[in-house]
Design the sequence.
């Protein structure tokens, strides 16, 4: 018996040594994916750019499901035309569905595939209940304490204006691109992008135009993005999650009197149980696609022991996933998320309603579809009394994953590292929806990155209160687009 134990112990020890050997070899060979570039000198930029951004913030181009304020959008387009006179006179300009814009800057070499920069002109409304919490009026465009304040300074007038500033300045320097550059600014991104991005993309398809790469908002340059990395990380979105809302309802023959509730369950009870079950039985988590890629780029930059863990995902995946699931942000990167957003039922405190309904919003991880989400939900609830239907109007598959070994990604990475020394660049999965989901037919290389450095705590300002951008950060955005155009269009 003793002999057997000794043999077993030896086998186990041998297996451990082999595994440890693999772990060490993988960790030692886990090489950096950052590229070596020379930092460029930062050009001087006039403070007037901040005032011009402030002027655009003052125009409340708000879009909501109820509609848009046409006068404000008309005013915003006139403002842009009056402020960027060289762009207005030297680039081809086209207005789509009244308020969206396309610009074309024709390059000298028509054989080079064009590139496309995206941004959007609309902003989300300001919640009336929070108005008093703003340090500066949300539509003041005030410049104070080194920041431009107001709705749109992060999402996304800041992109529109910084792209236009960069081109206006290049035109002033008599720069002309070799490669053709397009700009497309939608006016309804915050409500789905049908009249803007979707229509513009269709137009490009009709004209047979396809792009070398497309760059839109989505991810940012974030300080303290990951606990085990001190440097800021430029997260370049290479994919975005899909979107579906499921309608969920219980319709009983009869509601009845609340003094004699039915023993087989009430409509409210049945629906609540279904929702609670869905929250308990989350979609399976997995480390794949864009999320996995992010760790391939950030892992080598980590210190031990994190570096060893990410170098050996084959061994530590389960443990890693459990950790990622604990954090709200990283949880959204590894699974389809379940978010009950609306519930309706009941008319009086002593009447049992016969019908109750609700809506659950899912952000779909790559590899799944709105239909597979519906199947999973039906199976998980497993109750015929609960009717689940899909809201086809807004359903959207997850995007394709754009490559990291393509010209577009490499140029964005190079430009970011040239301008911001001491950062790490990594691909990532965008968990929210952007306009570029409509452009899948016109390019395989779609990237989502705003070249703005933010603290993690600043992220809640997007769509929230006290939205603001630092003047220096804004100037860096202009420098980034200038350098990106110079790098891409030669
Ligand atoms: Zn946006």
Sequence:
């Amino acid at each position: 018996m003793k002999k057997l134990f000794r043999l077993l112990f030896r086998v186990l020890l041998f297996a451990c040594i082999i595994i440890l050997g693999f772990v060490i070899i993988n960790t030692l060979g886990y090489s950096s994916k950052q590229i070596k570039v020379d930092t460029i000198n930062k050009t001087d930029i006039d403070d007037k750019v901040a005032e011009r951004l402030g002027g655009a913030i003052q125009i409340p181009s708000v879009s909501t499901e109820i509609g848009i304020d046409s006068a404000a959008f008309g005013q915003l387009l006139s403002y842009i035309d009056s402020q960027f006179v060289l762009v207005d006179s030297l680039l081809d300009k086209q207005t789509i569905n009244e308020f969206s814009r396309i610009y074309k800057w024709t390059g000298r070499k028509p054989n080079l595939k064009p590139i496309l920069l995206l941004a959007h002109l609309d902003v989300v409304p300001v919640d009336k209940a929070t108005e008093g919490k703003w340090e500066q009026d949300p539509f003041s465009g005030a410049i104070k304490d080194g920041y431009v304040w107001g709705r749109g300074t992060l999402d996304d007038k800041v992109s529109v204006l910084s792209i236009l500033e960069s081109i206006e300045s290049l035109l002033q320097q008599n720069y002309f691109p070799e490669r053709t550059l397009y700009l497309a600014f939608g006016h309804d991104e915050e409500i789905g992008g049908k009249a803007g991005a979707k229509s513009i993309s269709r137009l490009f398809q009709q004209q047979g135009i396809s792009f070398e790469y497309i760059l839109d908002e989505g991810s940012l340059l974030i300080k303290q993005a990951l606990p085990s990395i001190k440097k800021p990380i430029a997260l370049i979105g290479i994919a975005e999650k899909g979107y579906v809302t499921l309608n969920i309802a219980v319709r009983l023959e009869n509601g009845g009197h609340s003094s004699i509730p039915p023993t087989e369950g009430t409509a409210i009870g049945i629906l609540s149980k279904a929702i609670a079950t869905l929250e308990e039985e989350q979609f399976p988590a997995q480390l794949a696609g864009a999320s996995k890629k992010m760790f391939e780029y950030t892992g080598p930059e980590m210190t031990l022991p994190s570096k060893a863990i990410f170098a050996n995902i084959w061994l530590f995946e389960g443990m890693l996933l459990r950790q990622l699931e604990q954090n709200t942000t990283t949880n959204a990167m590894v699974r389809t998320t379940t978010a009950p957003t609306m519930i309706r039922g009941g008319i009086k405190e002593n009447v049992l309603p016969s019908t109750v309904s609700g809506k659950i919003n899912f952000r779909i991880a790559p590899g799944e579809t709105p239909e597979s989400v519906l199947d999973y939900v039906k199976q998980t609830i497993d109750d015929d009394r609960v009717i689940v239907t899909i809201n086809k109007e807004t359903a959207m598959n997850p995007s394709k994953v754009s490559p990291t070994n393509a010209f577009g990604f490499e140029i964005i990475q190079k430009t970011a590292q040239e301008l911001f020394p001491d950062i790490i660049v990594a691909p990532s999965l965008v968990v929210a929806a952007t306009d570029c989901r409509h452009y899948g037919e016109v390019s395989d290389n779609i990237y989502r990155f705003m070249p703005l450095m933010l603290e993690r705590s600043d992220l809640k300002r997007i769509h929230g209160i006290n939205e603001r951008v630092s003047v220096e950060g804004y100037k860096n955005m202009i420098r980034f687009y200038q350098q990106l155009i110079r790098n891409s269009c030669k």
